[in-house]
Amino acid sequence: MMLIKGGRILNPANYRFEAADIVVEADRIVDLVAPGSVSAEGRQVVDASDRLVIPGLVNGHNHAQTNLSKGIADRWTLEILLANAPWTGGRRSVEEKYLSAAIGACEMLRKGCTASFDMFAEFPLPTIDGVNAVAQAYADVGIRAALAPMMADRSFYEAIPGLADALPGPLREQALSIKHAPHAQNVAVCRELFTNWKFDRTQIRPALGPTIPHHCSDEFLMGCRDLGLELDVGFQMHVAESKMQAIVAQQRYGKTLVAHLDDLGLLTPGFCAAHGVWLDDDDRARLADHGCSISHNPGSNMKLGSGLADTRAMLSRGVNLALGTDGAGSSDNLNMFEAMRLASFVSRVHGRDTELWLSTQEVLRAATEGGAQALGFAGQIGRLQKGYKADIVLLDLGAPHYVPLNDPVNQIVHCEDGTGVHTVIVNGRVLLEAGRITSFDFDALRVKAAAAIERLTEVNRESRALCQQMEPYVSQFCSGLAKTPYHVAGFCQH
Ligand SMILES: [Zn+2]
Predict the structure, then answer these.
(1) Residues contacting 190, CB < 8 A, separation 6+
(2) How many domains does the chain have?
(3) Residue 466 belongs to a domain
């Protein structure tokens, strides 16, 4: 039993901070009481005096395999990133898959994030050992995850009409020799994984991750849909992340990606679209009407030059909004405080009508309750409330960004950068104290990470050289295609 004593607690009803003590039994918040009204005797006491107490932040979109490739690239678009995936994430051992996931989980924990929707990629298809290694890493560090094996049955070069033809002959052959496993094999691995799931589903939930609609055949998408319904698991897909994707959807389907997914029956309350930059009003209406979520990932959208998503339009139409960092390969850090700050700022560049800007309260809600719903943990996490899981973050009021304390919610969203995170509790266990991870030996990962990079650099040398030969052709083709005018109703980007 635990007593979190003397703190200022975020009230989910009004987003104000109020003095209260939190009583935790096992993994749950069992009561919020007046300060000092419950005896500390026989309880583990967590001193929250001089702290703001918030629910653990929830990362709506992430990729475990990319933590070993953080900082690897500078001026890459999404398409250049995908073209380089064979070497940036290739030839990993099971231990390296665990290592990459553990580094990311530790970073999130250190920065006050206690749950993550993780699309973990392996090539040419997910493996039981790989997915279990990533789930084990989350379990060992102690934070929650919705873990979706990321899958495709078309390669990047098969997915984009005309791209392979833009490569010179020998390179075209090499590109077309990259083959993902057939859809039935992908679905079979997921079925086996999910029916024999080894982890506590309240901590690590399985989900399905067919990566991008046009990277998956319709048969594959329908196979995933049926498996999801049968085994009651959620979905995450990259949807309308780049302008290229929106244009390819018109070429392939003669309609938007969301309309296509809707027609195939994939949109359900368990569906979370990552990014949603290039959506129109009809797309948002379809997502909202089916109870879907969108993970808005402003850092990644800006770093890869994908565009600026219209979060006000999402909220106004009733889409559940979550926030994410995306993987360390595309936005490089996993800092949900930064994601909140950027989400707030990005909402303001659309125009001068301040009523349409996201408020800091809306942003904080997206990073907690919104994310909880997107991950399939609605009603379990995302609020400091009786009956909810004890996933709790204590922020140090002595940190410079709270001096002086004028408005806690504004300061959490606009000033906090993660350095004020003092204590993190997940599932009723203290995992981080005084800014140091206590549940896991992060320092031991450093040596392993250096060794892994040395090995991977060597085994991926040829693959890297080949990707670099292809890169200018990919870049030129995609830039050309992206010049196609594409007007998104209500919001035009270039
Ligand atoms: Zn992603």
Answers:
(1) 126, 149, 151, 206, 208, 224, 227
(2) 2
(3) no
Q: How far is the CA of 118 from the centre of ligand 1 (A)?
A: 9
Beta bridge partner(s), residue 293: 272, 320
Cα 488 to middle of ligand 1, angstroms: 22
C-alpha of residue 133 to centroid of ligand 1, in Å: 20
* Ligand 1 geometric centre to CA of 492 (Å): 23
> Residue 64 sits in which domain range?
57-375
In a domain, 490, yes or no: no
Please state, in angstroms and as integers, the Cα–Cα distance from residue 142 to each residue in 119, 173, 407, 439, following that order: 18, 45, 31, 7
Q: CA dist 367 to 59, 151, 239, 268, 308, Å? A: 7, 26, 20, 21, 18
Full-prediction pTM beyond 0.85? yes
CA of 306 to the centre of ligand 1 (A): 12
Q: The domain that contains 307 carries what CATH number?
A: 3.20.20.140
Task: Tell whether 465 is covered by a domain.
Answer: no
Query: Does one domain contain both 248 and 352?
Result: yes
What are the strands, taking DSSP E only, across 446-489?
none
Q: Ligand 1 mean position to 219 CA, how many Å?
A: 22
Residue 239 CA to ligand 1 centre (angstroms): 10
Q: How far is the CA of 150 from the centre of ligand 1 (A)?
A: 9
* Ligand 1 centroid from CA 372, angstroms: 18
Judge if 202 and 279 occupy the same domain: yes
| Ligand 1 mean position, distance from CA 423 (Å) | 29
Question: How far is ligand 1, taken at its centre, from the CA of residue 335, in Å?
Answer: 15
Domain co-membership, 430 together with 315: no
Residue 480 lies in a domain: no
User: Digits of tens for pLDDT over the chain (494 positions)?
Assistant: 999 999 999 999 999 999 999 999 999 999 999 999 999 999 999 999 999 999 999 999 999 999 999 999 999 999 999 999 999 999 999 999 999 999 999 999 999 999 999 999 999 999 999 999 999 999 999 999 999 999 999 999 999 999 999 999 999 999 999 999 999 999 999 999 999 999 999 999 999 999 999 999 999 999 999 999 999 999 999 999 999 999 999 999 999 999 999 999 999 999 999 999 999 999 999 999 999 999 999 999 999 999 999 999 999 999 999 999 999 999 999 999 999 999 999 999 989 999 999 999 999 999 999 999 999 999 999 999 999 999 999 999 999 999 999 999 999 999 999 999 999 999 999 999 999 999 999 999 999 999 999 999 999 999 999 999 999 999 999 999 988 888 664 444 54
